Amino acid sequence: MPRSTTAAARPVSKSKAKKATKKPIKTKAPVKRKPSTIPAAPKSAPKKPFPANITPMLATLADQPFDDAGWVYEIKWDGYRALALMHKSMMELRSRNNKSFNEQFYPVYEAIQEWGIQAVVDGEIIVIDDNGKADFSLLQGWRSEADGALIYYVFDLLWLNGHDLTGLPLTERRALLEQLVPTNDIIRLSESFATSGTEFFEIVKKMGLEGIIAKRADSLYFPNQRSKDWLKIKTSQRHEVVIGGYTRNKDSRKPFSALLVGLYENGRLQYTGKIGTGFNDKLQKQLLQQFKPLEIAKCPFTTVPDVNKPSRFRPNPPEAKAFWLKPQLVCEVSFREMTSDGVMRHPSFEGMRTDKDAIQVVEEQEIPAKARVKTKATATGQKLLTPAGKAVRKTMLNPTDKTQVRPVGGHALKFTNLDKLFWPKEKITKRDMLNYYYQVAPYMLPYMKDRPQSLNRHPNGITGKSFYQKDVTGKVPDWIATFPYHSDADGRDKNFLVCTDEASLLYIASLGCIEMNPWSSRIQTPDNPDWCLIDLDPDKTTFNQVIEAAQVTKEILDAADVPSYCKTSGSTGLHIYIPLGAKYTYEQSKEFARVIAKLVQKTIPGFTTIERATANRNRKMYIDFLQNRPQATLAAPYALRPKPGATVSMPLHWEEVKKGLQMKDFTIHNAMDRLKQEGDLFKPVLGKGINMEKALKKMQSLYA
Question: Which segments constitute the ATP-dependent DNA ligase family profile domain (predicted)?
């Protein structure tokens, strides 16, 4: 029977009067905002070639804060000093000892690449906590954005568009820099405060920050020099030291008991004490791995320290043996005070310093900072710290290590073969896939949580052999939840894997499951699905015909006051979900879907069928209602698909379900941008659920 074109053939839904005006959203990678205009360097700044080998100016240690006129103050950030060198094709993020930070802190490197200026900028790389406070221990262990919010605080501008700015006063350099700082989450301006130094210091001290930097407002920039025009005043005693050895106490089970450290003086390493606190067993094991290749027979210190020397606090110290190291490693230590013989009291390990060369670690003598002219301004009216802002997930795995262990939800997950190409043509790796699932997990978990999974594993990507796995008995870690079932094929009791949280979702992905296939029901109500499904499978029909079938389905459901939600399959078809609220059985859901499928097929019989057997379909589009059976699965919302282009099963606005929609509109590259823009469109699928009996009666009355 040919399809009717009369209005009677399709009851008009309540929503039909609302004309669809919204176009399909095709999101792209976000473009970072750049300054509207690049300021010109002042005429007083001489022209000079790009300074590719410049090193930063250093501050001198001062004993106390002061209130002199003509000084400004900044927070002393607890991180790594870094110069950003940006010139045409050369982009470099460099430490104070001329080591590249490009790979180690790749998000900052990517941010300076996107900055779009020709300049040399001075700043500090830190990791901040939720309150905006720098955490050096987090920076130490930072391997990917899952380890914390990485920030590059910039505070000086040395070269701009072919002009040397180092001979300009600090205030002029800062004024130019303020106009250049982009609006993104990584590069931030380190604020300068024209205020009372003593009051600013007290505020910073109460906040538990490392200290302040005092700078003459008219100071020039002297590369590779320690200047008294810049002073650092610390809220506690901290210093870099060189590790010259370690001890192990007799009968101790720890990897080592204390670090033996010192400072260089006239090229000779002077012993300054031993550090026995500030590290746990895990850190000690990591440090010992660094120590082993550096072990030597001869003590590197000028005088051999007595590692068993008693003190008034420990008159009978444990018997310790010393192991000597080549003096190449630098760490940071906090301590109460330095004794008259140059030994630290109560030192505590703060972290390793890879940004400083050992030979440059010398004792910093505090200079007196006598107060003279007091200023009236205070810092209380300005905000000192900026929190990380709304957490936006970026990457869990760093871009270099092929094998990585990451803590997720209290479990140590091991991710291997991360460089393996899962989409060879597109150069998309297993690492990229796992990072995507880490990003999308908060959106995807509601459709995965507490649901048994049918694992579709692609250990070698989309071009390799794949296989389905249902039974995971004895094959998964103890913390992974399972759900029992009985196999009639071999008469054995088996277990499905159950996704319960982010850790189990990422574990599934680590198995090479490019796509995720959850049940429609949860283990709490295993016989009652949360949604009813209509799967439009095109076979040899066009995708525009799939779109038309989806539109017809929606009109039928709208007429019966049944809410429905559509998503791309990520492969060739469309999936339509109807919320059930776990109030009905799988059998009821299937029969409800059968009624809908029949009505759709009756409306557009020319290219649709409800025949299950492929041979009987005559290459027509199959309206699949049998996906509403126990243990049947479809790709989850936001799941990747093992298809060319790394497409995603993406929820849609109904207004987007029209001619022009393409599967390739939604991929691993733009899915997160769309989610940030549109939010989770599928939330109502997990809502209260329809009244099925009422809906069936209405359909019968409309289509009798």
Answer: 143-276
Domain boundary among 451, 483, 510: 510
Is the distance from CB of 323 to CB of 247 less than 8 angstroms?
Answer: yes
Q: Mapping DSSP to helix (H, G, I), strand (E, B) and coil, where does residue 294 land?
A: helix
CA dist 377 and 11 (Å) reads 73
Cβ(180)–Cβ(188) under 8 Å?
no
Q: Is the pLDDT at 13 greater than 50, yes or no? A: no
Candidates 545, 571, 546, 543; CA nearest to 634 is 571
Same domain, 162 and 302: no
Q: Does residue 583 share a domain with residue 464?
A: no
Do 569 and 634 lie in one domain? The reply is yes
Q: Is 606 exposed, middle or buried (0-12, 13-18, 19+ CB in 10 A)?
A: exposed
The residues with which 100 forms a beta bridge, in sequence order, are 94
Mark whether 248 and 270 lie in a shared domain: yes
Judge if 537 and 495 occupy the same domain.
no
Q: Quick check: is 140 in a domain? A: yes
Per-residue pLDDT, 24:
36
- Transcribe 603-652 into DSSP letters: HSTTSEE--SSGGGSTTPEEEE-GGGSTT---PPTT-B-SSTT-BB--EE
Residues 6+ apart with CB under 8 A from 21: 655
Q: What is the mean predicted confidence (pLDDT) over 168-175?
A: 96
Joined tokens for residue 192 = 């300068």
**pLDDT exceeds cutoff 50 at 379:** no
Task: Give the pLDDT band (50/70/90) at residue 337.
Answer: low
- Please answer whether residues 482 and 496 qualify as being in contact, where contact means their C-beta atoms are separated by less than 8 angstroms: yes
Query: Which residues, including other chains, have CB under 8 Å from residue 208's CB and lie 6 or more apart?
Result: 133, 235
Which pLDDT score is estimated for 10? Answer: 38
Same domain for 432 and 547, yes or no, is: no
Q: Residue 22 above 80 pLDDT? A: no
Last residue of a domain, one of 202, 234, 266: 234
What is the C-alpha separation between 100 and 360, in angstroms, rounded? Answer: 18
Q: Greatest CA separation found in the chain?
A: 103
548-to-97, 271, 488, 556 alpha-carbon distances in Å: 64, 80, 41, 13
CATH of residue 252 = 2.40.50.140
Count of CB atoms situated within 10 Å of the CB of 162: 14
Q: How confident is the model at residue 537 (pLDDT cuts 50, 70, 90)?
A: confident
> pLDDT category, 63, cuts 50, 70, 90?
confident
How would residue 569 be classed by pLDDT, with cut points 50, 70 and 90?
very high
Q: What was the pLDDT predicted at 133?
A: 84
The pLDDT, as a whole number, for residue 370 is 52
**What residue numbers bound the domain in which 481 lies?**
415-510
φ/ψ (deg, to 5) at 447 = -95, 0
Give the integer Cα–Cα distance in Å for 570 and 507.
Answer: 22
Q: How many CB atoms lie within 10 A of CB 107?
A: 19
- Quick check: helix, strand or coil at residue 509? helix
Coil/strand/helix, residue 327? strand
* Separation CA 32–CA 185 (nearest Å): 10
Q: Which helix (H) or strand (E) holds 698?
A: helix 692-702
Residue 670 pLDDT exceeds 90: yes
Residue 152 Cα to chain centre, angstroms: 16
- First vs last Cα of the chain: how many Å apart? 18
Q: What residues does 575 pair with on adjacent strands?
A: 535, 567
The pLDDT confidence band at residue 32, using thresholds 50, 70 and 90, is very low
pLDDT bucket at 206, cuts 50 / 70 / 90: confident
Give me the pLDDT at residue 390, please.
59
Structure-model confidence comparison of residues 16 and 359, the more confident one: 359
Predicted TM-score (pTM) of the model is 0.73
